[in-house]
Amino acid sequence: MKVSKVFFFLAAIGTTVYLFRNSISRLVINVPLLRKWGIRLAMNIPYIRNKMIGSMFK
C-alpha cells in the first residue's frame, strides 16, 4: 500500500513538472539567484560540463 502511494506521489510531481516545464524554465532564467544555482547544478554533471567546455574552447 505504501509503495503505491509513493509511486502515485512521484508520478504526480513528474506530471506537474512536465506540464509546467516552460513556466519553470522561464522562472529559473529570469531570477538571477535561481539561474546561478541552475548553472552550478548543470556544471556538476560531467556530460553537460564536457559539452559546454568543449564548445567554448574549440
Characterization of the model:
With 58 residues, this protein is mainly α. 88% of the residues lie in helices and 0% in strands. The chain is elongated, with a radius of gyration of 16 Å. The mean pLDDT is 90.
Share of residues in strands? under 5%
Number of strands: 0
Give the CA-CA distance, first to last residue.
Answer: 54 Å
Q: Average pLDDT across residues?
A: 90
* Portion in helices: over 70%
Which residue ranges are poorly predicted, with pLDDT under 50 across at least 5 consecutive positions?
Answer: none
Give me the number of helical elements: 4
Spatial shape:
elongated
Rg measurement, Å? 16 Å
Question: Which structural class is indicated by helix and strand composition?
Answer: mainly alpha
In N-to-C order, the SSE pattern is HHHH
Strand and helix map with partners:
Elements: H1 2-19, H2 21-30, H3 32-43, H4 46-56
Summary tags:
mainly alpha; 4 helices; 88% helix; 58 residues; single chain
Task: Provide a quick synopsis of the model.
The protein has 58 residues and is an all-alpha fold. The protein has helices at residues 2-19, 21-30, 32-43, 46-56. Helix content is 88%, strand content 0%.
